[in-house]
Amino acid sequence: MKNLRIFILLLVLLPVFTFANGQNDNQSADNYPAKPITIIVPSSAGGGTDTMARLFAEVAKDKIGQNFVIVNKSGASGQIGFEAIANSNPDGYTIGCAFTPHIGAHMAAGRAKYVLDSFSPLANYVTDPGVLVTNVNSKFMTVNDVVSAEKLNPGSLTAATTGPGGDDFFALVSLNKAAGINLKDVPSKGSSEEKVNILGSHVDLAFMNYSQIEANYRAGDVRILAVMTPERLSYEKDIPTFKELGYNVFSDSSRGFVAPAGIPDAAYQKLEKLFADVVKDPQFLEASKGQLLLNYMDVEEYSNYLNDVSSTTASIFENNPW
User: Could you give the residue ranges of the DSSP H alpha helices within 112-209?
Assistant: First the structure.
């Protein structure tokens, strides 16, 4: 009889407990975010990834009701920042930026203290073609000028990149191979440092992404010798491709946002929607003009893209280890 009374009591209380737990879950979703959200940027302030994060944060804060705090963790071609994201508390209050191929390059080289499953992809925002840049006062007017000068004095020319394992490093290796030359790599901590180097003529060339140098190009500070796409850019039709010049050099970089794995579903879903909303916002679109080459990918598309790029990067590492 006593056992029967306990059983009946449990039956009565069970719906109450279940409802209470459901209320807590719903309340958590409704209250998120209850404080500012940190965005870890694995590169220096002023670079392309940093610009993307700040433009997003400016519009997103009004949509979600909280500020975003940008924390730059540069160094090791993004590895320091990627690891900081992967190791952060997955409570929904720390997210970060990811950029390819660097995030996969560190894994391919065996240096990374993370795997792709350490992250929960949120959205890709930018896909940025590679370009070869010189200072406007440089004697190099064409890619063939560069190739001829390097062949005349092998190893004499320097080129800025963001370091081994990056898309611009791959581009440098590709041009060296395609043209039979040996441009010297000058690694930097990010695109902002690359800009300083090329604008100050501290290097002969810079392998960069178009959006990182677009403003300087339009201001007449630099010269873009060629773009690393199969066809000419629709928005810069005067810039030749490496392909049409006889060099098989192709390169681009993507920039997006990820959260550490294990983020609560309520926070993840709210952030996923936020990124989808911001990328369509008129204020964001206007602010992005001339700064970001937008190419939105949702969670599924971005996840597949990261897997594909990481696989390709691992294959490149086998033949050109860094």
Answer: 143-152, 167-179, 191-199
Terminal CA-to-CA distance of the chain, rounded, Å? 75
- For residues 149 and 211, give the distance between their C-alpha atoms in angstroms, rounded to a whole number: 28
CA 40 to centroid of chain Cα atoms: 11
Please give the domain boundaries of the chain with CATH numbers for all domains: 30-128+253-319 (3.40.190.150), 129-252 (3.40.190.10)
CB-based contacts of 262, cutoff 8 Å, min separation 6: 90, 120
Per cent of the chain over pLDDT 70 is 91
Residue with token string 């994060």: 53
State pLDDT tens for residues 287-320: 999 788 898 999 999 999 899 889 878 877 887 7
Which residues face 255 on adjacent strands? 99, 126
pLDDT of residue 20: 30
Query: Which residues, in sequence order, are bridge partners of residue 134?
Result: 223
pLDDT of residue 318: 84
Give the largest CA-CA distance in the chain.
100
Alpha helix stretches (DSSP H) within 32-129: 48-64, 79-86, 102-108
Q: How far is CA 95 from CA 2, 7, 69, 257, in A?
A: 53, 46, 10, 7
DSSP assignment of 108-126 equals: HTT--S--GGGEEEEEEEE
Query: Distance between alpha carbon 146 and the CA centroid of its chain, in Å?
Result: 29
Residue 35 has pLDDT above 90, yes or no: yes
Q: In which region does residue 304 sit, left (phi positive, over 0), alpha (psi from -120 to 50) or beta (all else)? A: alpha
| Relative orientation angle of helices 210-218 and 191-199, to the nearest 10 degrees | 30
Q: What are phi and psi of 126, to 5 degrees?
A: -135, 135
Mean pLDDT along residues 138-148: 98
The reported pLDDT for the residue numbered 163 is 81
pLDDT tops 50 at residue 104: yes
Task: Please name the amino acid found at residue 257.
Answer: F
